[in-house]
């Protein structure tokens, strides 16, 4: 019998603890001292870095074993560096060849930094290295031979860089467990030789490259493989049988490729699958009814394929399923799954199929947050047990044939967390309920195009968080209730195409989200990221209701029977982007206060009974892209300048009293619309002598004035007085002009050394309209040919506002310090009173916008020129971000100018703000141009470098597609260029993205690479966007373009 049996248990525990303590003492080593060889290597590595938090820390400690990120260990009785972890340290610079000297490393992690350049390394000495992570940098070039000799490597991660080469040339890694080369530019056929050399491989991620071919060779991959990610390549063909033999697979992602054929019933062999993603391919046929064997499946995503037939009943057995996404297929029949078994289901998306019958009654999961059954053929009422969906946040049932709206709202009012409810195109001909409770958290409510009768219900007033309200295309009558103006979060209101009567309530001018940018920003909380659209009518484009920041703040009241006047207080709604009051019976004049709505993009007042004139101050609406006052009773001169240069005649037709250059020249009688003055009204009472006296006085005054003008003209010197020519400036002189002397400043880089103010005015023909070559922010741009024959572009800023003054000062200050071959050179500036003139170098070929969108002769830019323009513009923006630290904030094709060699030059820094050296953002008013504005600007009101990158990504899309960024198509699921591109990519219709004039198989690789770069620039999360330096390197890596 063993003596331990007689000892109490407590005593044994103490003995065990004492043993552990003594063991720890025996293992404890003294503080390690850095080996001189490693110390020298680390100092050389730091010498190749230009930034990063480790540099100062390393310089203050002589013992490198104590340095941040450095771990030493005993190797052959010596203290050597065995681990170097510098992940997320903000490192900038290149990878030093001195890394090779750290030949005892077991772990090297340089991930999530800004390292650039190639890998000048011979890693054959690193016999001990087990983990190598270089991911999320800007490293480039071929690497296939660099990693040869890493005999002990377990984990190799070089993802999210710019590495190139043929995938099949990777070497042998006998101990490799995890291999990740995703998000690079590797090419070649997809071969699985790596599986032959790495028998222990468990994780293989080759997604987001340019690999071609099929999945042949999977026989080489052992049954140990747990994760296989090949999404976003150019792979195709049928799935091989060998795929279904990889029985250890837990994650399988094949999305965004060209795989085709039917999904085999052998899928049942992959019983350990947790995630199956097949989206964006060309699979067809039935979904195999074998999901009963995949009991661990948590995600099943197969949207945007061509699957047909019924839902497999065995999906009901997936008790841990969290995501079921089968939208955009051709599935049909009833949805008769037993959802009571799917207790973990969070997202259900079966939209855009051909399902019929009633909505599934068994849906009752308390975990369900997102549900879309839109665009099917469902009928009947909403089941009562949907009231138990307590976690439901997003529900879209639009475009079906559902009935009993009153019952539907009575059920859904119990879903207390519901924030988005889209019921458009259902409940045909019913009456909108008068009494409903609940919906305290509702943010987006769409009930348009239902043909509903009744009035706008009072219960909506209790939805205090409502941001978007769409009741359009119904038969609602009565007046618009005043309490609408008390809804603090509301920024999108669509009551168009109803039978509403009465006046527009004055309370609408109190909508807080449309008055203050802070209130508007706080309203933009997108409840979910699911991409669902609702059509306003048969011809309208889709609105992405769930992404509130992606469509403009709007008041849409068109096609009703409204009367009364437009309240002058409407000018308070400075955050409003779209105002449509057309096709009503509105009377009175157009309030000039509308010119205070600086964000207005669309103003439609057509088909009313308005009179009076169009306020001249409307030319200050610099973002106005659509203006329509047709078919009213307006008279007088159409405003000149600004956006009014671009509006067609149809915007003004049906107003016989209107005149102007757009329609017909104005006679004197058209211009004076003011009420008669007391002097005029009493002139009939003057005797003949009085009239003669006045006439003589006026004649003498004119003669004296003429004499003074002639005398001043004859005596003028080199032209230092600008007042001689001020009569042609299309505005009365300001009182402040007489107190501010003229000032003309020419910079050292200017080509015109002997220039006067008079020369400027002569060179533009006193700013004649025939000299206008463009319309920039807050002013027009004129072509000027100076006395020495040099051509310049003169930007004449207009307006009196303080923001214009700040723009002038910021632009001059910024450009005087910003000199780069890809920036428009500022030659100088002139100021006199409140007039501001900027003198630029002239660009012979105009703007990129002109060449992409305005050419009438059918010619277009070739691909090599477009690529050259993209590279040049990127270089210019990178300089701005790095040298003077300028956020441009208005990157667009009209601000990219081209010289005679089609070299790109960034222009218009009027929206720039200089940053201090260590600032990362500036906070200011929301500015930019529709279609280019990053989504985060509307929420944070913060302009950042990554915001510029988003705008540049849109420019890249314009170069690739030849389309404008807004309203590029009118399809039901398409609103702007960004969403259109992503939609075509998701549907594997990538070739349709490109401009047909540049699509060529010889350029295919370059086109796809630039598309990939553009898509990374326009991701929603700014933290995931690359820096512009990274973009420059990517574009340069695509290939150099010959000078033309």
Describe this structure in words.
Its main location: membrane. One of its GO terms (molecular function) is protein serine/threonine kinase activity. This is non-specific serine/threonine protein kinase. Pfam families: LRR_1 (PF00560), LRR_8 (PF13855), LRRNT_2 (PF08263), Pkinase (PF00069). Keywords: ATP-binding, Cell membrane, Glycoprotein, Kinase, Leucine-rich repeat, Membrane, Nucleotide-binding, Receptor, Repeat, Serine/threonine-protein kinase, Signal, Transferase, Transmembrane, Transmembrane helix. With 1044 residues, this protein is an alpha/beta fold. Among the domains are: 107 residues, Ribonuclease Inhibitor (Leucine-rich repeat, LRR (right-handed beta-alpha superhelix)), CATH 3.80.10; 117 residues, Phosphorylase Kinase, domain 1, CATH 3.30.200.20; 191 residues, Transferase(Phosphotransferase) domain 1 (Transferase(Phosphotransferase), domain 1). 19% of the residues lie in helices and 21% in strands. The protein has 19 helices and 59 strands. The strands form ten sheets. The protein has a 23-stranded mixed beta sheet, with no helix packed on it. Strands 14-16-18-20-22-24-26-28-30 form a nine-stranded parallel beta sheet, with no helix packed on it. Strands 1-4-6-8-10-12 form a six-stranded mixed beta sheet. Helix 14 packs antiparallel against helix 16, helix 14 packs antiparallel against helix 19 and helix 16 runs antiparallel to helix 18. The protein starts with 8 loop residues before the first helix and ends in a 6-residue tail after the last helix. The N terminus and C terminus are likely disordered.
